[in-house]
Amino acid sequence: MGGFSIWHWIILLAVIAIPVVAVFLIVVLVNRSNKPPAATGAAPPPIGQSIEARLRDLDALRARGVVTDAEYAERRAAILGSL
């Protein structure tokens, strides 16, 4: 009757391990929720600039070769989608 049996060790492990795992999971979830959102690559629209001016600027960028046709189409759709 001396010493710990295997059941004592299992219960002791469960009593210690469950709170440690719970605290670890809470810390991980809190850290994930505090991260800033990933950048989408699209710049926010200039403040106070009209839709027409933004489309003209986009046309000028495409004419200079700064944006590809695919980027042009995507950004034009985004500008028109903000109406």
TrEMBL record:
Segments forming domain SHOCT? 53-80
The record's keywords, sorted A to Z, are: Membrane, Transmembrane, Transmembrane helix
The record's InterPro entries line, in alphabetical order, gives:
SHOCT
Which chain regions cross the lipid bilayer?
A: 6-30
Enumerate the Pfam families for this protein. SHOCT
Name of the protein this chain belongs to: SHOCT domain-containing protein
